[in-house]
Amino acid sequence: MTDTPLPAPSGGEPYLLTPGPLTTSRAVKEAMLCDWGSWDGDFRAMTRTLRTRVLDLIGPGRNDYDCVPVQGSGSFLVEAMLGSFVPPDGKVLVLSNGAYGLRAAQTMRYLGRDFRLLDKGDYLPPRGAEVAAILAEDPAITHVLVIHCETSSGILNPVEEIAEVTRAAGRKLLIDSMSAFGALPLDPQALGCTAFVSSANKCIEGVPGFGFVVVRKDDLAAAKGNAHSLVLDVYAQWEVMEKTGQWRFTPPTHVVAAFLTALDAHAAEGGVAGRGARYARNRDTLVPAMRALGFETLLAERWLSPIIVTFFCPADPKFDFTRFYDAMKARGFIIYPGKLTVVDSFRIGCIGQMDHHVMTRVAEAAAEALAEMGVASAAPPATALEEKKRLAA
Ligand SMILES: *Cc1c(COP(=O)(O)O)cnc(C)c1O
């Protein structure tokens, strides 16, 4: 691994320490300085390349799977996956431990399709044994949906464990790998996964505008007629793309161009392993430096993803999140408010065009921000530490 610092964002813009949109390279932004005709051969070739190169990232199962891009943000893709691969008479077990799990459940409500919610609260992981018990007790369940990295807390959910019990019970597995794909290994064939979704603006480090489904070809073939929505019908999108090489409706041409450039950088960095190693080093630089200031993470090391880290807000009454946010922004870092319901927290993303040198400066900026507010120690309140103990139990 090279230790040459990555270039800072152009024009002195702040780093986005957020889980997408995130800080992209200059090359990714420059890739958009051209206009493409959506039906033109050049753009059709770009779409073909995009689909092939995503499949190159999934390992030995690539020939059994296909990649179908769909316009929109990540949530459009989750809805497209649920609406296209869960038949109208299917039933989904939605495993939730945060905002994205709850959003998937809300999507099922909109779809008007049957589901059961296992709601673990803000961050407790769904475990294999409890999923197996629900599947044994409820034969109507056809699919299980798991969030790979639940970005609201940053927890890395035990996807292998859940895949194993889902397979053993003969049900189909759907994965929201939005914030993990590209940085954490995901082998759909080994997991026996029907489909997973991700988007252009997370770990591949492209810009927002489309996402993609990676789906097993037999499950895709069986999906005809399932969709509730014209624009989110993955089968129809695939069918037209196969036949004409085109997207059904106006494609985000510039975003596709940026994504291809982002994929080049991803490959040059060593693919999923290289990208994951940089993010892990970001986390492993950030967390000890923040702990040295008194901050504590919500999650124990075992569950801490290299994607985003949740820290408790300090107990000191002089700490004010808005002031902290502004002080961080003044130093070039946009952080992210927390999403926990029980205790106050904030999040710092480890993904995007930044390295451990930047993470060191993030902790230095946090120290300065605390000093500005007159906060001597960033130690969290006792209630936060009790909350953390629940996870260890
Ligand atoms: C980002 C993300 C999504 C999609 O959110 P959008 O706001 O629609 O981009 C879905 N699931 C997870 C886990 C995510 O991190």
Q: Mind explaining what this structure looks like?
A:
The model has no long low-confidence stretch (mean pLDDT 96). The protein is globular. The protein is an alpha/beta fold and 393 residues long. The chain has helices at residues 26-30, 41-55, 74-85, 99-111, 128-137, 159-168, 188-191, 217-221, 234-244, 253-268, 271-291, 321-330, 356-373, 382-392; strands at 15-16, 65-71, 91-96, 114-119, 143-147, 149-150, 155-156, 172-176, 193-199, 210-216, 308-312, 333-334, 336-337, 345-349. 41% of the residues lie in helices and 16% in strands. Strand 8 (172-176), helix 7 (188-191) and strand 9 (193-199) form a beta-alpha-beta unit. The chain has two domains: 10-21 and 271-392, Aspartate Aminotransferase, domain 1, CATH 3.90.1150; 34-267, Type I PLP-dependent aspartate aminotransferase-like (Major domain) (Aspartate Aminotransferase, domain 2), CATH 3.40.640.10. The chain has 14 helices and 14 strands. The longest helix is centred in the last third of the chain and has 21 residues, at 271-291. The strands form four sheets. A seven-stranded mixed β-sheet has the order 2-10-9-8-5-3-4, with helices on both faces. The chain has a three-stranded antiparallel β-sheet with strand order 11-14-13, with no helix packed on it. The structure holds pyridoxal-5'-phosphate. Pyridoxal-5'-phosphate is lined by residues 19-20, 73-75, 78, 100, 147, 151, 176, 178-179, 199.
Overview features:
393 residues; alpha/beta; Aspartate Aminotransferase, domain 1; Aspartate Aminotransferase, domain 2; 2 domains; 7-stranded mixed sheet; 3-stranded antiparallel sheet; 41% helix; 16% strand; globular; binds pyridoxal-5'-phosphate
